[in-house]
Design a protein that fits this description.
With 461 residues, the chain is an alpha+beta fold. The protein folds into 2 domains: 74 residues; 357 residues, Porin (Beta Barrel). The protein is built from 5 helices and 20 strands. The strands form 2 sheets. It has a 16-stranded antiparallel beta barrel. A two-stranded antiparallel sheet has the order 12-17. The protein is elongated and about 130 Å long.
């Protein structure tokens, strides 16, 4: 009936014109009708004809109304939300015009850890153990095309709110983000933990680079995605904490991908960037804070009663290179902060770096994101593949300059090597077997090193 709508409109106009023409024609040909036809009879005939035409017009108008109603119902049907299932990004609900979108998902990381050196209960967070490293639930999506959101909660003994933000994206070049999210600083910090090649991030990234912060951010992408930038004004106190003074921390990052649109595979994946932070942290306590190895051993830490007492400045230089199945990425970063325990304040500088390399033995293409196997593993399919297999390794170091030894406990720094094998049966599951060796600049708990094996099962839902 919708398809017949233009024809119905044409008939309405035609009948109206025909009725008028017929009336005029009967008046014109009045003498030909014969002497026995009176004017009254002719008027009766015209009235009957008009009544018939009026009835047809009413029917056509009703058909037009019904067609409009059906067309509106059809449009509403097309705009109804459709439910799709995507095991890579969780359950999805999306409108046909993509104006509304919602995902619900999560991740689970379960570890088995074996210490290979002799037992020492004074070091680390425990010895041989099973551990639920992460259990997160999330929801994200967008409303009315432009308003994106994300909420992530960590479950377990240390339940906390992680992501909780809204991002207004009217233009790619200028976006506004408010809430709690990863501060735009470190390359490894900004890479999702499910895509970090070793089982956890480096010592430098976890201690020097900021993590989640509460604040407001302007960010965007320019020059056909060749340049991305972000400028954030944050409390500077960390995750889920209100500011303790009126001073804020400024975080800024620029990342360049000059050849992202080229067809040259050797240049397309080359990327460089830098980031800085600056703020006043006058009263925040830093007691017990310090870098940790992957098993959780404190390399060094601030003594009890130590607090920040002035400026804090951080910078980072970062680079990455993805070419086919190979990736190489690294970062150099430093943090200068003024701290105080008793007496005069002291400036302390922490410096760290890492370099990570990985190679997909099965030939898939590397990136900062998900590894999707060419041939997913299926034990019930004779023609199924074995998933994707990857060799990964990282070396990293952290240290501090020797200021006041009364402020810092433990060693002076550490170097960490970690490497192993990652298996991706499909795009949602990862199994990692990795070995870690850390050597300490000074003896910690009576030893100069530690050796650990890790086995992790990671799944997204």
């Amino acid at each position: 009936m919708i398809a017949a709508l233009p024809h119905a409109q044409w008939r309405v106009h035609f009948i109206g014109v025909f009725r008028t023409t017929l009336f005029l024609s009967l008046l014109v040909v009045q003498p030909v009708w014969g002497q026995d036809r009176t004017t009254e009879e002719r008027l009766d005939r015209l009235a009957a004809t008009q009544q018939t035409l009026d009835g047809e017009i009413r029917q056509l108008k009703q058909r037009l109304l019904e067609a409009r109603v059906l067309r509106k119902v059809a449009a509403e049907e097309e705009s109804r939300v459709q439910l799709d299932l995507d095991w890579g990004n969780g359950f999805q609900m999306r409108s046909a015009d993509n104006a509304f979108h919602m995902q619900v998902g999560g991740r689970l990381h379960v570890d088995a850890r074996v210490q290979l050196d002799e037992d020492d209960p004074e070091r680390g967070e425990g010895r041989d153990t099973f551990r639920v490293r992460r259990a997160w639930i999330r929801t994200n999506g967008h409303l009315h095309r432009w308003y994106y959101w994300r909420v992530v909660a960590a479950l377990g003994d240390r339940s906390m709110l992680l992501d909780a933000w809204v991002d207004v994206r009217y233009w790619d070049a200028l976006r506004l983000k408010v809430g709690q999210y990863l501060a735009p600083f470190g390359q490894e910090r900004l890479t999702s933990d499910k895509f970090v090649k070793p089982v956890d991030r480096s010592m430098a990234s976890t201690f020097i680079a900021p993590w989640y912060e509460v604040g407001i951010q302007l960010h965007g992408r320019l020059f056909l995605n060749r340049l991305s930038y972000a400028v954030m004004l944050a409390n500077g106190n960390g995750i889920s904490l209100s500011d303790e003074n009126d001073d804020k921390e400024l975080v800024a990052r620029v990342f360049l991908r000059p050849w992202v649109n080229t067809t040259n595979p050797w240049l397309r994946g080359l990327q460089v960037g830098g980031a800085v932070t600056y703020g006043q942290q006058a009263t925040a306590s830093v007691a017990g804070m310090g870098p940790k190895t992957t098993p959780g051993t404190l390399v060094y830490s601030y003594a009890d009663g130590t607090r920040r007492d002035g400026d804090r400045y951080r910078w980072s230089l970062q680079a990455a290179w993805h070419v086919g199945p190979f990736t190489l990425r690294g970062e150099l970063m430093q943090m200068d902060e003024r701290v105080k325990r008793t007496g005069a304040a002291v400036d302390v500088t922490h410096t760290g770096w890492y370099a990570t390399a990985a190679y997909l033995l099965t030939g898939e293409r590397q990136s900062f994101g998900r590894v999707t196997p060419r041939d997913p593993f299926d034990p019930h399919d004779p023609k199924g593949g074995w998933g994707a297999w990857e060799l990964a390794a990282r070396v990293g170091q952290i240290q501090y300059d020797k200021g006041d030894r009364m402020l810092i406990l433990g060693g002076h720094g550490a170097t960490q090597w970690i490497g192993g094998l990652n298996w991706y049966p499909n795009a949602a599951v990862r199994v990692s077997l990795q070995y870690q060796h850390a050597s300490f600049r000074e003896s910690i708990g009576g030893t100069d090193s530690e050796d650990t094996m890790f086995l992790r099962l990671q799944i997204e839902f």
